[in-house]
Amino acid sequence: MQLIPCPWCGPREEAEFHYGGQAHVAYPEDPSALTDEEWAQYVFFRENPSGPFAERWSHSAGCRRWFNAVRDTRSHDLLAVYRAGEPMPEVLS
Amino acid sequence: MTFRTPTGGTIDRNTLLHFTFNGRKLTGHPGDTLASALLANGVHEVGSSVKLGRPRGIVAAGSEDPTSLVQVEEPFPEPMLLATTVELFDGLVARGLAGQGRLAPEPDPARYDAKHEHCDVLVVGAGPAGLAAALTAARSGARVVLVDEQNQAGGALLGVDEYLDDRPSAAWVADVLAELRSTAGVLVLERTTAFGMYQDGFVLALQKRTDHLGFAAPAGVARQRVWRIRTRQIVLATGAHERPVVFAGNDRPGIMLASSARTFLHRYGVLPGSRAVVFTTNDSAYCAAIDLAESGVDVPMIVDARPEAPARLATECAARGIEVRAGHVVIGTEGAGRVTDAHVAPLDGVAGHCDTVVCDTVLVSGGWNPVVNLFSQARGKLRYDAELGAFVPGEELETVRVAGSATGELDLTACVRQGRNAGASAAISAGFTPRGQMPLPVSDSRCTSRSGLVLWRVPGDDDASFVDLQRDATVADVLRATGAGLRSLEHIKRYTTIGTAHDQGKTSGMIAAGIVAEALGVELADQRPTTFRPPYTAVSFAALAGRDRGELHDPVRVTAIHPWHVAHGALFEDVGQWKRPWYYPQAGEDLHTAVLRECKATRESVGMMDGSTLGKIDVQGRDAGKFLDMLYTNMMSTLKVGRIRYGVMCGVDGMVIDDGTVIRVGEERYLVTTTTGNAAKILDWMEEWLQTEWPHLDVHCTSVTEHWATIPLVGPKSRDVLAAVAPDLDVSNEAFEFMTWHDTHVAGVPARVCRISFSGELAYEINVTAWHGLAVWEALMAAGEQYGITPYGTETMHVLRAEKGYPIIGQETDATVTPQDLGMSWAVSKKKPDFIGKRSFARAENNRTDRKQLVGLLPVDPSVLLPEGSQIVETDRLPEPPVRMLGHVTSSYPSAALGRTFALALVRSGHERIGETLYVPVEDSLVPVTVTESVLYDKEGARRDG
Ligand SMILES: [Zn+2]
């Protein structure tokens, strides 16, 4: 079982966490101004890279905070974790 | 006849153990395994093979054995154990298996548990390399855990009669072990198999704590324990398994791995037979031949596939009367059960030249496979070692080191040196400084050379040449797979089933890979070995479940009023983790009669239920209204303090995810309710939006589900009952309007009473602190006695709401249903510029007229009850498939109020179909139903105000 370093609590077992999909997908400023296609992009489409991927995690059985992590999807290695609202750190790929 | 030697081994010869195998009463000694005790009694035939029914014996001495599957019958039935790993105890009753066992029909009374352990260095395997690694790490001050699957340390040394530094090797082992045990921070676990390696130094190990005690196992001590070990560094000293060579008739009982025969001799004092032919491709089997010959076994011949026999060992054999046939192989065997003859011929296949040697035992050695299972599980890359004919660790990992014969090294001193180095570097990586280097022992072993011939199989009858003895998979099966065009070992494994039995191909996998490479004409170095997966050895579900069984399987949540429900005979329904009263049967009542009675009493007089499990979330802050406006489809910020609004929540895709009431407690405070099963999910949903999208909003959410006991009081007499227990409250319709709430006292305790209804009847929802829940419930029961107040459960609640066409989220909906599909456009705000899901309502897909929509269904025959989940079709006769399905039945009940059965359903273009007749396939018939509006009872809402 992987250890996930919560930016608030430190390394904890992955069973304490909940996955939240791709990070930095902001809720559109004005959904009514979007075309159906643009709205569908927001609702249904997400990246699925082989390699580093910025994604959201929630420490749901711990501090209950949402945070972001860059994970290499090939190895599951967590390359960086950072608090919600912070910019994505530069990571080696 | 006994095959027990007069002396030797680590068994306790002074104590006799009685056991029963295949109905025969036999004896053995403490220290025996079931396998060694059987061999001591001359029993080689254990079971039979799963497909062909051929007799199966004992091939190896340990957990790599492919054949000796037994069913233990007493003390407690347990299937699929290996005779070679079952430690003998008095009273054991077992029988051999034909491939498959039988689970006990009764619950296992034994206790299983789990324990967490944290350490700096975990060493797997207590053979020479593992002991050296553990001692080196321990001397550095690191916290060390040493696990080993055997009941005593020593590893390969247990199976030989060799000296280290002019002392029996057991003395060296005992010294190392004694120092380990006396070092603080060191944990040595015997009978403990590391079976799974996971990320970040997480290792699972199974400890068999009392299995070996049999009937004497103390109650209250966990029989098996799963160790959940988190370590900084790992040293794998998992050893090597001898592999056989495949030849025609290689599956007969009495055909055994040479080193395993040596282990049976030295560890258990057991001879494998009277007359043994040894077939080898390397030096190590010579030691077995010589040791057995010196112990009284007639060894007529060593058949060595190599063109030249090793000179020194051949001389030693000649001195003992053992003929050595170099360049020869065993090409076949005879025997109705156990082997009786071996056919020996030159490897180069000179036609017609063949000798038959009478024997009751054939000992085989095809070389050694390093045990790389755990290394591979740790995602270490493997490399093919052509000299060894095996996959070995092919890279260094940051936290995992491999030492000893698991690397392919077969020289004992070199193995200890590797262990010492691995232990030191693991300690350094974990932040410690090695101290006091242990000296390397010198072995007197005859057989340390690794020069061997890599030989997977002897050409012959492919259908009689078994690769996987447990799966009855032969060379012919492998060639059939390659002939069918399969090239990947993973595909061939699945096609032939080789390596999928209990042993996971420990002795067969490498050979299968070799035969495939030969058949395809490719290099093994270019082949990708099959992936090793946990568990390394079989682990029972009971052990994995541990204490999480029965009542402890999952937390059980009960309400404050629960004891009353139990005392009054309620049957319970699980809703999430909650126990909810389902219905309250009276004498002689079944579900239907009880529910009809509960419904009738509620609609005609007054009923009451325990609604405490309803999710409740306290939402506070300056922006609470703004926040709820985004979450719900309807407007919440305009709700006046003192009033209540029903709300629907959607996902961004516009599909309904939950519903409930929102009451405005104060200017900056709301209390929202969720469906029972969704409470945690909706709180998470709120937190997610607050933290990730709108952190600037001043809103705080807290679950208060368990703080409140909630009692819906329902029916035309509910006003009278409430008036009797709430003297401060003006219960008149004018003073206490529908969808408002009042703080007051009920039965003398502070209460918040809401006028809401989930049944269409006049109803009040009484909320008090959980502490007072039971007392208030009892007071209401007493006050309602003169009206025949009737407690009802979830089933009646479901019927009452369904008669009114109120959907239950999760029953009428499945994440593909919009508020509009449910006929709830009235709950979708047209004024708000945005809320979650709004934009999706404008999508073309959401506006199709043929969406599935909620309607009522009335079976034409009013006594027919449609099964929930039934499909709905258009015609009274089923056309040729594929049949177009219009939708499905979501709820279906008999109704006291309607005097007939009815159902709710999601039906394509349902709102347009009202009045149509559709058909529901039930078993072999098509039941005609009439489509109606979803509201079937009191369409005018006349009953709401009493
Ligand atoms: Zn945390």
Question: Which CATH class of the largest domain in chain B is shown?
Answer: Alpha Beta
CATH topology descriptor of the largest domain in chain B: FAD/NAD(P)-binding domain
What share of the residues of chain B lie within helices?
10-25%
* Record field, number of beta strands of chain B: 49
Please characterize this protein's 3D structure.
Chain B: It is found in: Cytoplasm. Chain B: Residues 852-938 form the Aminomethyltransferase C-terminal domain. Chain B: It catalyses: sarcosine + (6S)-5,6,7,8-tetrahydrofolate + O2 = (6R)-5,10-methylene-5,6,7,8-tetrahydrofolate + glycine + H2O2. Chain B: Its cofactor is NAD(+). The complex is a heterodimer of chains A (93) and B (946). Chain A is mainly beta. Chain A has a single domain (3-83), classed as Folate-binding superfamily (Folate-binding fold, 2-Layer Sandwich), CATH 3.30.2270. Helices cover 10% and strands 35% of the residues of chain A. Chain A contains 1 helix and 6 strands. In chain A, strand 4 (52-58) and strand 5 form a beta hairpin. Chain A is globular, with a radius of gyration of 15 Å. The model of chain A has no long low-confidence stretch (mean pLDDT 94). Chain B folds into 7 domains: 9-108, Ubiquitin-like (UB roll); 110-241 and 368-447 and 538-551, FAD/NAD(P)-binding domain; 245-365, 3-Layer(bba) Sandwich (FAD/NAD(P)-binding domain); 461-522, Arc Repressor Mutant, subunit A; 561-612 and 707-800, Gyrase A, domain 2; 615-703, Alpha-Beta Plaits, CATH 3.30.70; 850-945, Elongation Factor Tu (Ef-tu), domain 3. In chain B, 21% of the residues lie in helices and 28% in strands. The longest helix of chain B has 18 residues, at 412-429. Chain B is elongated and about 115 Å long. The chains are: A mainly beta (93), B alpha+beta (946). The A-B interface holds A 1-3, 18, 20, 26-28, 30-32, 34, 36, 39-40, 42-44, 56, 58, 60, 64-66, 75-76, 84-85 and B 198-200, 202, 379, 652-653, 684, 687-688, 691-693, 695, 833-834, 838-840, 842-844. The complex binds zinc ion (ZN). Zinc ion is lined by residues 6, 8-9, 59, 62-63, 65 of chain A.
